[in-house]
Each structure stands twice: as C-alpha cells, then as structure tokens.
Write a structure and sequence with these properties.
It holds the Pfam family CCG. InterPro entries: Cys_rich_dom. This is (Fe-S)-binding protein. It comes from Nonomuraea composti. The protein is built from 13 helices and eight strands. It has a four-stranded parallel beta sheet with strand order 2-1-3-4, with helices on both faces. β7, α12 and β8 form a beta-alpha-beta unit. The protein starts with a strand and ends in a 6-residue tail after the last helix.
Length: about 240
C-alpha cells in the first residue's frame, strides 16, 4: 500500500517528532510511506475565519499533491475532518475541482482510523509502561466520529495502564481561533480539563491532535503538575527497545 503522510501545519512547525512517529509506525506495519514535499496548509483556519477563496485554492493544491496515493494519513482529527467534511462544500458541483475532491478526500484518514479500518490492526506491537489517560478532541469526536478507535489501540499497548478521563467529551477550550478570540473562556475550559486530568493520577495525557495537547499542556506545565502530553502516534510507535 502506497501511503502519503499529511503532516499538517502544527506538527510540521512545532511537533515534527509526531510525523516521524507516524512514519516509523506505518513502516513497521509494512506500509510504503511517502512525504510529498509540496504539501501545504489544508486551509482550515482560512475557511473557519471567512477566507473561502483562499480555502478553495488550498483545497485545489491539496488534491493535486495527494492524487495517486492509495491512502493519505494525518496525525490530526482536525485536519482530516477539514478535508473530508469541508472540501466537498467548497467545490462547485460538477466542476473539475469537485471531481478531484471526490477522488482524494475519501482516502484521507486520521491515524487511528487508518490502523483499524484500513489495515485492520489493533495491536501495533507497541510498548509503553506508563499510566495514561486519553482526551478525545472535538473534531475527532464530533467530526470524524472516531469513537473508541484510539482507546482500542492504547488498550493493546504492552505495559500501558489506560485510565478513564472524567468529562472526557468536554472541549479543552482550544478551538483554533476560539482561543485567540475568547482567551478568558478558553483558559477557564483548559483549567477544568487540567483538573480532571489530575484526578486520574495519570503520568501522560494522550490525544490525536497536538493543537489540543499544546493548549492543555501549557496549563499542565504552568501548574507544575508533572503530567506529560504525548500524541497517540508517539505512544504507538514506542517499543521496548526504544525505552
């Protein structure tokens, strides 16, 4: 299977280790992974703030860059949801752009979707001997409807103790530009999420979106909680040899 990694802006700029973890994991599972260097932003921020034409241009570029692959994997429920849910709404019905989106968008998968739904695997051979709690981000929960896919993968990681997160389905307060436009509300929501994380006694907070982990992690760090944040891909890529 010829797979392309769609790294996303946040990961490319701030969390390159997550992209490396995805490549390592997929290659371990027998995938031929490519990284198209011409890829850019998916346009989510532009469309969400009213710059529709810019979003259309970026959607067109995305379909050109990722055409021809068997699958496109993104370590982000947020950006995968943008391509699958929003791109079809940007194109004019019957246009070449609409046809290109119809061809590429269904092949775009968030990592846990790809592992469980496409590769049909739940035990990826990972080892991570730590107490972990999982935060289901809003786009992965309500947009892609990932359900229990990420936790099923975590439950098969050797040595990992998965503990439930109280109020797991509540937003962490990031919400992209929401955190910028409504900082006080965003910070209050982040504080609530942090309090619930601390109640679990977990060493590590895991999620499928680094944007949310960045927001929550800032509060965890400022409060000197000692709780680490880790993307799902990094835990799944961990092995006993790497510990």
């Amino acid at each position: 299977m010829r797979v392309a990694l769609f790294i996303t802006c946040v990961n490319d700029t701030l969390f390159p280790g997550t992209g490396k973890a995805v490549v390592s994991l997929l290659r371990r599972l027998g995938c031929d992974v490519d990284f198209p260097a011409a890829q850019t932003c998916c346009g989510q921020m532009h469309v969400n703030t009213g710059y529709r034409e810019e979003g259309v241009r970026l959607a067109r570029h995305f379909t050109e860059v990722f055409a021809g692959y068997d699958a496109v994997v993104a370590p982000s429920g947020s950006c995968a949801a943008m391509v699958r849910e929003q791109y079809p709404k940007l194109a004019r019905p019957g246009s070449r752009g609409a046809a290109a989106i119809a061809e590429v968008a269904p092949k775009v998968h968030e990592l846990s979707e790809f592992l469980i739904d496409v590769l049909k695997v739940e035990d990826v051979g990972a080892y991570f001997p730590h107490r972990v709690t999982y935060h289901p981000t809003c786009h992965s929960l309500r947009g892609l409807r990932l359900g229990d896919r990420p936790t099923r993968l975590l439950q098969h990681v050797r040595g990992l103790e998965l503990v439930p997160l109280p109020g797991a389905e509540e937003c962490c307060g990031f919400g992209g530009t929401f955190a910028v436009k409504n900082p006080a509300v965003s910070a209050a929501m982040g504080a609530d999420k942090t309090r619930n994380i601390m109640d679990t006694g977990a060493e590590v907070l895991c999620a499928a979106d680094n944007s949310c982990l960045m927001h929550i992690g800032g509060t965890l760090s400022r409060q000197k909680t000692g709780v680490r944040t880790m993307h799902l891909a990094e835990i799944l890529a961990s092995t006993e040899e790497a510990q």
